[in-house]
Specification:
The complex is a heterodimer.
Chain A lengths: L3 E4 L2 E5 L4 E7 L6 E7 L6 E7 L4 E4 L2 E6 L4 E6 L8 E8 L5 E3 L3 E6 L1
Parallel strand pairs in A: 2-11
Antiparallel strand pairs in A: 1-3, 3-8, 4-5, 4-9, 6-7, 7-8, 9-10, 9-11
Chain B lengths: L3 E4 L2 E4 L5 E7 L5 E7 L6 E8 L2 E4 L6 E3 L9 E3 L8 E8 L9 E2 L3 E5 L1
Parallel strand pairs in B: 2-11
Antiparallel strand pairs in B: 1-3, 3-8, 4-5, 4-9, 5-6, 7-8, 9-10, 9-11
The chains are: A mainly beta, B mainly beta.
Chain lengths: 111, 114
């Protein structure tokens, strides 16, 4: 069964600290992996998209990694800001225009 | 101001009533999608349309209907047949329906049925 699992479910960190969110997937075939940021009550906004051949991609303070062999991805946030408080969703494209969404990690950044 | 708009942001309906959620995009995208988001779960695809006058069922189409008469518009009707309609509904669009195309999401409509 195609699944995307994210951990932790929720995370609290202090402003200025770094954090890493995890994503494991069992989607086959694999086309690409995406990370989205979703503010409460808003639509998701894309952070990165990575194909099979890419193992690192950055977008400002956000760096995503992909290990296609172990089917794992991580999203690292550097020098967190209060505005980083949001849910972060890992999405795997399984081909045929099929996106499999994880349940998300809810991040709270406290001053 | 380009993007995807959904209206209204909040919608309240009585059980047994049909309700239509609006989704408009001015990005000139061919493909449009409707997702449902429930607490603690990933987004689930309801319907998608790759081109005008064509649409396909997603994973949870039962109790929903759509139309795609114009490229810019993809309204979703939640019918009385949908058993648990209360949810956050997200519309998205992409330039095309291929695997690598970015999906851009609207701000969402929160539907509450009592």
């Amino acid at each position: 069964k195609n699944q995307v699992e994210q951990s932790p479910q929720s995370l609290i960190i202090l402003e200025g600290k770094n954090c890493t969110l995890q994503c494991n997937y069992t989607v086959s075939p694999f086309s690409n992996l995406r990370w989205y940021k979703q503010d409460t009550g808003r639509g998701p906004v894309s952070l990165t998209i990575m194909t099979f051949s890419e193992n690192t991609k950055s977008n400002g303070r956000y760096t995503a990694t992909l290990d296609a062999d172990t089917k794992q991805s991580s999203l690292h946030i550097t020098a967190s800001q209060l505005s980083d408080s949001a849910s972060y969703i890992c999405v795997v494209s399984g081909g045929y225009n099929k996106l499999i969404f994880g349940a998300g990690t809810r991040l709270a950044v406290h001053p | 101001d380009g993007g995807i708009t959904q209206s209204p942001k909040y919608l309240f309906r009585k059980e047994g009533q049909n309700v239509t959620l609006s989704c408009e995009q001015n990005l000139n995208h061919d493909a449009m999608y409707w997702y449902r988001q429930d607490p603690g779960q990933g987004l689930r695809l309801i319907y998608y349309s790759q081109i005008v006058n064509d649409f396909q069922k997603g994973d949870i189409a039962e109790g929903y209907s759509v139309s795609r008469e114009k490229k810019e518009s993809f309204p979703l009707t939640v019918t009385s047949a949908q058993k648990n309609p209360t949810a956050f509904y997200l519309c998205a669009s992409s330039l095309s329906s291929g695997d690598y195309y970015e999906q851009y999401f609207g701000p969402g409509t929160r539907l509450t049925v009592t």
